[in-house]
Amino acid sequence: MKRLKDAVVAGVRGLFLTIFALVGSIVLFVFSVLSIAFILLGIGVFTTPAVLMLLRSYANTYRGLAGSWSGVTIPHAYRPFPPDLRGGVTGQVERCSLMLKDPATWRDLQWLLVNMTVAPVVAVLAPSLVLYMVYGWVLAAGVWKPIYEAGGGEWFAFIHVTSQDTADQAALLGTGFFILAVFVNPALVHGHFLLARACLSPTARMRERALARRVDRLTETRHDAVDNSAAELRRIERDLHDGAQARLVAVGMDLGTIEAMIETNPAKAKELIVKARQNSGEALTELRDLVRGIHPPVLAERGLGDAVKALALRLPLPTEVDVELPGRAEAPVESAAYFAVSESLTNAIKHSGADRVWVDMHHADGMLRIAVTDNGKGGAVAGAGSGLSGIERRLGTFDGVLAVSSPAGGPTMVTMEIPCVLS
Amino acid sequence: MRVVLAEDLFLLRDGLVRMLEAFDFEIAAAVESGPELAKALEELQPDVAVVDVRLPPSHTDEGLQCALAARRARPGLPVLVLSQHVEQLYARELLADGNGGVGYLLKDRVFDAAQFVDAVRRVAAGGTAMDPQVIQQLLSRRSAADEPLGALTPREREVLELMAQGRSNAAIAAQLVVTERAIAKHTSNIFGKLDLAVSDDDNRRVLAVLAYLDQGR
């Protein structure tokens, strides 16, 4: 029964893939070739990136379908755009040349050729095998007769349908095709995707280059991480030395003086006791603030969701926190995410002029996604020098990314994504 | 009055035991972990529990969870929670059941033995003892966003702060060195300005204040 269902499902998918592959590939191929040819005329510079982006999303849709329908994973190797890509005309030219220099673009175009010729043939077999049976039965039900009488020498595969007998044979053969479909249909769809994989997956050379880029990126983020933690340690050491430590020394000295004076001058001793108590209290307050700066207690006790909720309660702005996390991430990831949220919120309060803030956190597809939105005046920029680049560096250590949408006039939305697993 | 005490650091536990005994409390049990605390609360039925938020074996908020569970099993069981840090999030969870008899204080508050013991007694009697830090956070938040608190005079704000911590009029009067009558006048002014129903019950009074401070978030 399951086989039967799979075969029918594969048939429907095959039909869809045939149309999708033919229409999509032909249209995109024609547009791409025209657009690239028009680069000489200048227009192509502006259309090419758009067409190629469309092509990429078409290819990515295919990657998605391959994964969900046949379990075929097709990796991609598009080069990322540099973060300092300029806007306007120069940016457009740059984008165009970057995309044309990317070997993955040319592989996409080659794949379009295969995807409009061989691939649909493979895919169309799946629905055909199912539908042919229906046609055979229709013939056998008597439809052969009018066709024959009208002078139509109808062929069903290799059977010449001229009588009820031959029509019955056609129905039998159609049923045979259907039985074949039950066994081969999923494989046909699978084959269609295997072709796509053969064309689309990066070559060894592209993989090598991608690896090299990844190594560069890791080296960079590792440097950042080391720098950050060294700076953090210096700050902690300084805070301890100037704050709590000094106060505890003062308490010790006061206690010494008290010991000496307690009998000779009890009034003065009592005064010193009050001072010592104050000093020890303040040392504790400083230690507490320091701990909160290193690893917030609620984060340790309850995890990211409640820690951000507790943080929101301390803010001077009404803040709505929406958390959907079925488990806890690893401690370093939680900590990075917490401080990233904390810094985003601080930015929102300091600079945005907002009177409401929303935090949304959820986990899906192996990604922790966090959005911090305010209704302020907007105009925040990511990039060198801004507080946002600090957050970016923090997240970079975990391969996380940050995106800022902040049109002038608001609202500002800071989105963060960190790949991680929850436990 | 019989106390169950839960604190994992030996020095602090020892100090608390000595302090409470000095003020004539009977220490029914002094334990150092969550499971022991749960067992002691169930078997010994103390008059009040003094509990550290963070306890072994998990070293997370095990003490708080134990206290909340015990209060679910026995509503109104007086619990005073101590913590190295105070968070509104935890304060809300403690107050959520509306039964009173809860306290949530920074550990530093034990420095002032008399006030600390007063807080324990207040909680044991079914009142509340909220840490001034929690109250200040609430007040500063509200005043930033909201008008009615701005209408309070500085003196009334002081009174409101102490009231929200759970102090009675007499205690507030003593602390601010004025007569109890003056405090009564201040409180009725505050209730009027904040639009709160007047109530004689100390505990209800605090819950009303906190609910007011909490609303509109």
TrEMBL record, chain B:
Where on the chain is 4-aspartylphosphate found, per UniProt? 52
Q: Could you tell me which SMART domains the record lists for this protein?
A: HTH_LUXR, REC
Q: Name one GO molecular function term.
A: DNA binding
- The residue ranges of the Response regulatory domain are 2-122
Transcription regulation as a keyword?
yes
What positions does the domain HTH luxR-type occupy?
145-216
Looking up Gene3D superfamilies in the UniProt record yields: 3.40.50.2300
Name this protein carries in UniProt: DNA-binding response regulator
